[in-house]
TrEMBL record:
Gene this chain is encoded by: manA
Name this protein carries in UniProt: Mannose-6-phosphate isomerase
Cofactor: Zn(2+)
Domain Phosphomannose isomerase type I catalytic intervals: 6-107
Gene3D superfamilies on file: Jelly Rolls (2.60.120.10)
Family indicated by similarity: Belongs to the mannose-6-phosphate isomerase type 1 family.
Lineage, highest ranks first: Bacteria, Bacillati, Bacillota, Bacilli, Lactobacillales
Catalytic reaction list: D-mannose 6-phosphate = D-fructose 6-phosphate
Length: 323
């Protein structure tokens, strides 16, 4: 019998982080400003650790390389997705990510580009993102950056709890203060900072900016992705489809609102699961596993059918065909 792989996150301190990962989701986080919980991660900079079953104690990255049967037919060199919860106590830097081709040419071997998306878990009243820009040409983009004309360059995008935002590589963006988000992304730790509000760390140092790379990879002009978010009533609740291939080639992301028992059959090589709210049970191969707010686990390839029971809000993701 194959069990789901329950995961212990890797916690990442950030200058903009806070303490909500502990107070809201029950994580045992280190002291200080903790900005990110890498809850489903095979990235070498912060792999999650398997907490149960025969793979207990291995990182997800180790399991990907050493126990391939858990993930089905593998196409990628590394585990392709990374799921985080971000606590923006202060605003993140204004940044942009490369696509796969630029990352392969300019970053460490094996590093992917980064297309990502956010499901907004909490947003203070009046919250907004930086999402996109107003430059019409690359020359105008360069001129506005060099002039520091951030007010006219950067596009403000209001958000509220429950919103979903898709951020393709090449999109200038930033989470701003007062937002907690679940992020599903390609497994990449490459970020090009364009602007960081001239702030300094505890030693009085400004963080590094990456103006040339940002100019290289930013999509000009910016266009909003055309999403097709759908809701479907199913036995045991509702499934919201946020994004999936072909619009999003790297991943599909869903929200499950479970009220009763919601059955599933396998549709992907494996499925990533994060419980946002509630308590209940995950059942597979006749075995029940209690689940609660803050739990993350991977349903491996050997599990062909399963069900969720209880009153639960869950976000799941599956890899795209390129992964």
């Amino acid at each position: 019998m194959t069990e789901p792989l329950f995961l212990k996150p890797y916690f990442n301190p950030k200058i903009w982080g806070g303490r909500k990962l502990k107070t809201e989701y029950g994580f045992d986080i280190p002291d200080g400003k903790i900005g990110e919980a890498w809850i489903i991660s095979g990235h070498p900079h912060g792999p999650a650790t398997i907490e149960n079953g025969p793979l207990k104690g291995k990182t997800l990255r180790e399991a990907w390389h050493e126990d391939p049967a858990y993930f089905g037919p593998q196409h990628s060199q590394e585990f392709p997705l990374l799921v985080k919860i971000l606590d923006a106590e202060a605003s993140l830097s204004v940044q942009v990510h490369p696509d796969d081709a630029y990352a392969a040419a300019h970053e460490a071997k094996g590093e992917l580009g980064k297309t990502e998306c956010w499901y907004i878990l909490q947003a203070d009243p009046g919250s907004y993102l930086i999402y996109g820009h107003h430059a019409k040409t690359r020359e105008q983009l360069k001129d506005m950056i060099e002039a520091g004309d951030w007010e006219h360059l950067l596009r403000k995008y209001p958000v509220k709890t429950g919103d979903f935002v898709y951020v393709p590589s090449g999109t200038i963006h930033a989470l701003n203060k007062g937002i907690v988000a679940l992020e599903t992304q390609q497994s990449s730790d490459t970020t090009y900072r364009l602007y960081d509000y001239d702030r300094t760390d505890d030693q009085g140092h400004k963080r590094e900016l990456h103006i040339k790379q940002s100019l290289d990879v930013t999509t000009v002009p910016f266009q909003d992705p055309k999403l097709d978010i759908t809701k479907q009533q199913v036995p045991g609740g509702q499934i919201t489809t946020f994004v999936k291939p072909p619009l999003s080639p790297h991943f599909a992301v869903y929200r499950l609102d479970v009220d009763g028992t919601m059955p599933f059959t396998q549709q992907a090589p494996y499925t990533n699961v994060t419980v946002l709210e509630g308590e209940g049970t995950f059942t597979a191969d006749g075995q029940d596993y209690p689940i609660k707010t803050g739990d993350s686990f991977l349903i491996p390839n050997q599990i062909k059918a399963w069900q969720f029971t209880g009153k639960l809000a869950i976000v799941t993701s599956t890899p795209g065909a390129d992964a």
